[in-house]
Amino acid sequence: MADHRAQDKLAFLLSLVPYLVDHDRVSVAEVAAHFGVPQSQIRDAVRLIGVSGIPGETAQYQHGDLFDINWDDFELNDQIVLTNRVAIDDSPRFSAREAAALIAGLQYLSALPEHADRAAVASLMAKLSRGASAVPSSLTVEATATDGTLALIRESVSTGVQIEFCYRSAQGEAQSRRVDPLRIESFDADWYLRGWDHLRQGVRTFRLDRISEPVITTEPITFRAQDVTLPETLFEGSPEDLLVTIDVVPSAAPLLADYIPAGAVTTEIGGLFRTTIRVSHYHGLKRLLASMSGMATVVEPAEARTAVAEWAAAGAARYR
């Protein structure tokens, strides 16, 4: 009978220790409810864990070879906090810098609507902090002008209502839009909202820095991300798009993959790739070529060459 009791106690401890490791701070009452045992049994087990461990290199139980607990918190507040873990911590750990970088990335992701379950993200950040080889540096993600819009989009998703805003197109036209937010994506340095546009009755892409006066409506969301098949590419063509022929260095050609229409012919001329790209307006073409300085040249039509040349000349004139 004694052997069975010892085996049961060992099995319980083997289950309890990983549970405590996985929780940064937990009350005795919570642990007892989780395992379905009396609170007194949890307290006895915690005291036993406090004198358990493995012998280190000296083959003796030194302080670092034993589990340690915040005894003041345990005795005064009935809270269990492991301050030193042994044996199960032999697996490789993130360095403090690696953990800090991951935590900063998670902070940024928690702002996006498709990651609206921020409790899970917060739990993962806490685990990264505890599991690092040293205390991670305190990092925060710099706020941007679009953070307010992101916050409203996140609220729209979490509350299940549509968002309405004024959208200024690249041509400078402003129009009111009412949208079911589906996904936030980045392209180069810009952020875009992909959503179901109730005005156009279809999926549309909106650049966040062109959104103004966003407000949460009282209309329930009609479509969520799992209800709509989003195109693989961020930008979809339309019959009004302009076709432009360009020469581009081979190493930069992959950067234009989203702009090259299906069936476009690419030829090699003088060590450069000549291909056709699709743009919605010449203003977008100017921005695209500015990001590929020295790597791409407009061949035709003449209107496109003129628009880009005049824009580049105006920019250069500001330095005189």
Concise synopsis of the structure shown:
The chain has 320 residues and is α+β, with helices and mostly antiparallel strands. The chain contains nine helices and 13 strands. It has four domains: 2-84, Orthogonal Bundle (Arc Repressor Mutant, subunit A); 96-131, no CATH class; 147-227, Roll (SH3 type barrels), CATH 2.30.30; 242-317, no CATH class.
- Tell me the number of strands: 13
What is the CATH topology assignment of the largest domain?
A: Arc Repressor Mutant, subunit A
Q: Stretches where pLDDT falls below 50 for ≥5 residues?
A: none
Question: What sort of overall outline do the alpha carbons produce when their principal axes are compared?
Answer: elongated
Q: How would you classify the helix and strand content by structural class?
A: alpha+beta
Fraction in helix? 25-40%
Number of domains: 4
CATH architecture of the largest domain: Orthogonal Bundle
Instruction: Give the N-terminus to C-terminus distance in angstroms.
Output: 94 Å
Tell me the fraction of residues in β-strands, as a range. Answer: 15-25%
**Gyration radius from CA atoms, angstroms:** 29 Å
The CATH C-level class name of the largest domain: Mainly Alpha
Identify the strand order in the major beta sheet: 8-7-6-5-9
What does this structure look like?
The protein has helices spanning 2-22, 28-35, 39-49, 71-77, 96-109, 118-131, 147-159, 282-290, 302-317; strands at residues 26-27, 68-69, 79-80, 82-84, 161-168, 174-187, 190-197, 202-207, 211-220, 242-248, 267-269, 272-279, 296-300. It is of the alpha+beta class and 320 residues long. It has four domains: 2-84, Arc Repressor Mutant, subunit A; 96-131, no CATH class; 147-227, SH3 type barrels (Roll), CATH 2.30.30; 242-317, no CATH class. A hairpin with a 5-residue loop joins strand 5 and strand 6. It is elongated, with a radius of gyration of 29 Å. 18% of the residues are buried. The model has no long low-confidence stretch (mean pLDDT 75).
